[in-house]
């Protein structure tokens, strides 16, 4: 049997380990090899200004067959090397031929959300049924919302830009959008539009307020849920698995002890928690402050890692008070945070003396 007559699946397996330069040579050698070579060449496409390979966008726009082979696509355009509208027009044509995408990352100008605008021209809306990961620097507007409505399998969403609260409230995100979403990275101000989806991982930027914490609840009040905008929506058509946040990273200007208490109530299944605080302390936190936080953390049985403003806390088996200790019960200990002055006689004739570790003046404790 001639090599060129092998079934496509065998050719795909043979070509799989080959580098891109060899695949390009094979595609140009024989028309029988072109299909398998192109599938490998265009399966994963990563374009960036610093890599000087943005010209591939024109190739993808001119050959829809190649665009349809793309499974993961990432684009990074530097601010200092902003692309022209002609480039974005080519990108728009290429994107809407990538129906098999599983991952899409667009780091472009924040005002280029029209790239996600539906290009169906009056026909049925273009669907991206296999897309599971979407990351974007685009401003969150009606074009992004419209795109998310056409990604029913999306699991991971990463947004770097939000809009003003009034604009978000007016726009809304229909309940039927992204029903499988379990991971979100982006502005905390968009939380209200993501509840009550089955979120397990949240990495939030900007300020998380105590009022926003309610949107992390597994069962938010019906009045807080985004309304379904589907005309054919039945009573249970928008039912989703409850939110069960396990990994959470937040930035907050609220008092950290109060924020951690609120998070513990709304997210009882937390396994990893990171809190960065911008709250102004007029006095240095005392022992009662850390004790209050430690007591709150002890109410989270699944918690294994906790960080407060860069300080990593440790857990240890809880010391039994009555001699009886429940299995898995533990307590949390803050890192050393406060210097304590140790009484040491200091004589003037010893001013130039070098002290060892056992003679240190400061003993760090909490």
Automatic annotation (TrEMBL):
InterPro entries: F-box-like_dom_sf, F-box_dom
Stretches assigned to the F-box domain: 1-45
Stored Pfam families: F-box-like
Signal peptide location: none
Domain of life the protein comes from: Eukaryota
Protein name: F-box domain-containing protein
Organism: Steccherinum ochraceum
């Amino acid at each position: 049997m001639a090599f060129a007559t092998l079934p496509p699946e065998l050719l795909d397996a043979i070509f799989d380990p080959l580098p891109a330069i060899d695949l390009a040579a094979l595609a140009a050698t024989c028309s029988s090899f072109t299909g398998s070579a192109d599938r490998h060449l265009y399966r994963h496409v990563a374009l960036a200004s610093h890599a000087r390979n943005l010209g591939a966008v024109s190739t993808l726009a001119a050959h829809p067959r190649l665009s349809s082979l793309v499974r993961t696509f990432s684009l990074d355009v530097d601010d200092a090397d902003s692309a022209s509208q002609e480039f974005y027009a080519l990108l728009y044509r290429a994107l809407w031929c990538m129906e098999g995408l599983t991952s899409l990352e667009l780091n472009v100008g924040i005002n280029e959300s029209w790239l996600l605008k539906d290009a169906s021209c009056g026909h049925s809306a273009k669907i991206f049924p296999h897309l599971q990961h979407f990351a974007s620097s685009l401003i969150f507007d009606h074009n992004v919302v419209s795109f998310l409505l056409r990604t029913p399998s999306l699991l991971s969403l990463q947004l770097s830009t939000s809009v003003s609260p009034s604009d978000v409230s007016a726009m809304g995100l229909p309940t039927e959008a992204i029903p499988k979403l379990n991971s979100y990275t982006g502005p905390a101000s968009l939380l209200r539009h993501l509840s009550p989806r089955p979120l397990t991982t949240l990495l939030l930027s900007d300020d998380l307020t105590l009022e926003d914490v309610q949107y992390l609840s597994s069962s938010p009040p019906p009045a807080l849920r985004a309304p379904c905008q589907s005309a054919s929506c039945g009573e249970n058509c928008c039912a989703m698995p409850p939110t069960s946040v396990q990994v959470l990273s937040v930035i907050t200007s609220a008092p950290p002890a109060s924020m951690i208490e609120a998070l513990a109530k709304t997210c009882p299944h937390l396994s990893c928690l990171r809190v960065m605080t911008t709250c102004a302390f007029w006095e240095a936190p005392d022992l009662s402050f850390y004790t209050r936080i430690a007591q709150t953390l002890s109410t989270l049985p699944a918690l294994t890692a906790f960080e407060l403003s860069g300080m990593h806390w440790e857990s240890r088996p809880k010391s039994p008070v009555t001699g009886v200790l429940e299995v898995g019960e533990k307590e949390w200990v803050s890192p050393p945070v406060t210097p304590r002055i140790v009484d040491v006689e200091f004589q003037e004739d010893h001013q130039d003396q070098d002290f060892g570790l056992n003679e240190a003046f400061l003993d760090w404790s909490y």
